[in-house]
Amino acid sequence: MHKKKKISELGPGSEMLAPAFARRAMGKGIPKYELPGDEMLPETAYFLIHDELMLDGNPRLNLATFVGTWMEPEADRLMRESLSKNLADKDEYPQTAEIEARCVNMIARLWNSPEDEVAVGTSTIGSSEAAMLGGMALLKNWRKRREAQGKAADRPNMVMGINVQVCWEKFCVYWDVEPRYVPMEDGRYHLGSQEAAGMCDENTIAVVAIMGSTYDGSYEPVKELSTALDKLHEEKGLDIPIHVDAASGGFVAPFLQPQLEWDFRVPRVQSINASGHKYGLVYPGVGWIVWRHEDALPQELVFKVNYLGGEMPTFSLNFSRPGSQVVAQYYNFLRLGRDGYRRIHKASQDVALYLSRRLAAYEEIELITDGGDIPVFAFRMTEAAEKTRNYTVFDISTRLRGRGWQVPAYTFPRNCEHIAVLRIVVKEGFNRDLADMLLDDFERQMKWFDKHPEHRPKKSGHSFRH
Predict the structure, then answer these.
(1) Which CATH architecture has domain 75-333?
(2) Which fold would CATH assign to domain 348-451?
(3) 202-236 per-position pLDDT tens digit
(4) Are 310 and 96 in contact (CB under 8 A)?
(5) Is the dihedral of CA 275, 281, 285, 288 positive or negative?
């Protein structure tokens, strides 16, 4: 935890903004940390903020984030037109509510839910809120089953790989659920099916499987996990459901690996979440969650709200929010269709595979993944290079940042803390030309280290997981 400083301790001039040329006649500073006393012209306020934001990184060179950074001008226009519409006010904006319902059903069909049923799901701010809703439903249903059996329901646990996104750690803390993490092993960097089944007991509310681990981009074996849980059910009578966190892969696998069974084709999968603002190709933030059927979403979690002239059901954690991201998601669905999503993600995957193949050609580099699942891959230095070179992945990350590239370096969690990697996320907008520029810079940095033998390798860096 960083110690908070007083504003007065930040140094001379730290309390004021000094506009250089927004208004030449303005000769006084503007306070940073309290409301100014006077109004200012719109263009003055604009340039003050605009100039500060120039210090942010270039989104096109950000290979760390999974979040979308570009949309077509027509989508931008629709979002601007929808910014003032409150998605919560379904009575006042019924067509926006209808568009949300269409999206939920489109996504449910994409994930192979029963075609003859109206899908049960909702939009959310992002996958974190969707994960919370999925976890709450699983917890509530587990408690109801336990109480019906006359058994204690005060010690729930959830099984997941130690590579889960932090939102699942939050869920367990917020709702007093014991997290049971399946550790990594050398050569297995995500959830193992047998290991997960071995951690389950009568208090397990669900196993969470990830489609697109943030550590290395790999898919977890959902169908294999379901088979292991089927065997557990036969042997011990434990009937454990699966929730699939498909934050990234939910909008990739249906287009690039359509035969892969990870969704509602797997009977144990009760709910799935995904981020529309990742490979759904929408600006942040929008997420989605869909349940297999109505019984998977306890009615106790659905509230009837009499709001602004009409009664409506709601089962989200957030209430008021703009409808713009949902409208943008619908635009993408109509504009791209299955072929468009397949074309865009295939192009991203082709770049990821090209990059990983070129990097693997260096004797110092060893691939963890190659981008063959989602267009994301991780790589490390070989053990020999770690012992003999005067640099580490943390040094490479720092040097690349000096050229504008954001390529995160981090260590894996428990059992594999000795493995330090670089990770590259390829999204729409990062093309072959930019990939070649990155490769040129990567080689340039390695040559720099060769020319500076006095450089001491950096052993660690910021903990960057997601």
Answers:
(1) 3-Layer(aba) Sandwich (3.40)
(2) Aspartate Aminotransferase, domain 1 (3.90.1150)
(3) 999 999 999 999 999 999 999 999 999 999 999 99
(4) no
(5) negative
